[in-house]
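re: ur question from the group chat, yeah i did fold both. here u go
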Amino acid sequence: MYRTAITEAMSEEMERDERVFVIGEDVDLFGGVYKTTRGLVEKFGPKRVRGTPISEAAFFGLAVGAAMTGLRPIVEIMYMDFALVGMDQLVNQAAKIHYMSGGQVKIPLVVRGQFGVGTAEAAQHSQHLESWFVHTPGFKVVMPATAYDAKGLLKFAIRDDNPVIYLENRVLYLRKEEVPDGEWLVPLGSADVKREGTDFTVVATSNAVHKSSEAAQRLASEISVEVIDPRTLDPLDLATILKSIKKTGHLLVVQEGVVGASFGAEVVRQVTQDGFSYLRRAPLVLGARDVPVPFSPVLEKAFVPQVDDIIQAIRMMLGPGAPASD
């Protein structure tokens, strides 16, 4: 499962490097609410796996200081929304110290947090904040959609000497997938083509990757849709995206965050700047509605794009009766 892959990644990296430790407000003997640290206290002891009070600024600050001394902290935050309470420690300290020290100080810090729409946890527990972190120079931002990527990207992030914001979609935690045995790494900054196609390019993030893949499957008899998962939002593997658009001439970015000033909008900006001549039609970002996340399950479902919405957007972009490739 997705969450098991995360646990394995932390366990393997703690075995490999004694400088790695885990702290957070959802870390306990039972693995927390989402069970991502299950078994780590018994295996590594309370010195390296420690629960904290609900004081985000305090434990973010502790982690930044520990990283400055050469340790490699992993901070688990129960909901990524709660990071807003400690943004000064993250944005003004963690993201900037390497630059402001002239490269003398490294911050090998990973901040893990879950987010997502689909569990009816309302506006203060379900936000997509990835664009906030992408907008901050100094952060690397990771958003895995599969168990394989969740493990490989986390292991790579823990070994990175820069602060990494690692975003886990809670609706994917119980998703089961076949993965290989043993260790594997997924480098940051490498996109993955989840489904190959020739007529249309969809760039999707997190749970939208699975929705887009289903949409592509349903359209397979009439339109060949390529689905690309960036996996890391910053650094962005623009080359893989441009290679696909050069082939298809079309781009739809699908996300579950709001569209304005979003990651999807940034993808469109970079594509039009560096690959404008490849586009046969204007690109589009399909995302959440511009309102706080609703609590009602019915409204929450309507708040973000679903498979039918993705299919409709692709058909609309190609135009009525238009051939997929022209």
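okk and heres the other one u asked abt
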Amino acid sequence: MLIAKRWAYYFPALTLTLMIEEHVTLVVLLLLISQLIYSRRGDLKRLLDLGLRENQIFLVSVILCLASYGASAAMKAVYSIRPEFRDVYAASSAFGVLGFKGDVLLAPLRAISDPQAALGALTHDSAQKLLYMLMLFAPLLFVPFLSGFLAVNALLVVPFMLSNYRPYYMIGSHYPLYFLPSFFIMCAYAVSRLKERGTGVAKAALIASTVIIAALSPVSPLSGALNQRSHFLWYPEAEPPDQVEAIHLLLSQVPGDASILTQNHVFPHVSSRIEAYVLPVLSFDRDQTRMVEDYVDSLISHVEYVLLDTTTTDQWTTYARGRLEGSVDHAAVRVSGAVLYRRTKPGQS
């Protein structure tokens, strides 16, 4: 809508986009800057002329982006994070090689201030990162590199390349969604510049995209083999059908307004209710573990139901199950590899 200058649709689309997640603000800002520079083609006078409608739209859009980010930051400040989870939510370990703890958006500033640490971070998992970048551009036959739209939007990739957290640079995680829209816009601009040859290049890119997507789809036998034997893809392993059926059967026994505690992979099925809680997914150091145990105990004593997939044996599933097995306060219903615990006595408020 921005490129087509359809302003009646642009602002509702912008508003909905900014509502997705606070880091999307940076994506939108870089798209705005890229489009403004690209559309002016080096004409500095037009770039700074606030009498032009497009420049006015750009200024209002920037204000909306900053207001959205400020509102999300203020809202998060209202709901303080428990100390034992602060490092997890801040993704502190994701930039351990860089020696940085803080907002992912500020990681590049740390890299600028310490070039040696930045070099170490960039070269960490260098083969994996190079393969990742190749696979992002290969479906589009590297055509986006022909677009001047690339320069600013390439900044979106920088924080991920400075990280040591593999999901940031593996195919199959959601993180490429931050910059894939920019890649496709770059491709469209580059193809338009090729004129007569553009149609052939676009068709070739479409074929290449289709082939690669089909090969790396989660249902492809090739992706299954790669997922098992390499660190190339980040796809979760699917639950066996009978296990899925067992979990759905137990979920059907939980009233829609009941409070419930469950695991990360089951949580999306109950996340629409007000009181839905999830077990921690990570292990913590010795000092933190006791605090987390107290936290899990408080959840168990608070909720009416606890649903566990007993085929998983992570630390906190095992801990919760140990606390619930034989509990006189809970009745258990077992189906295949899953168990639903129902509180039989009033819990804590």
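fwiw on the second one: Residues 125-237 form one domain. The longest strand covers residues 330-335. idk if thats what u expected
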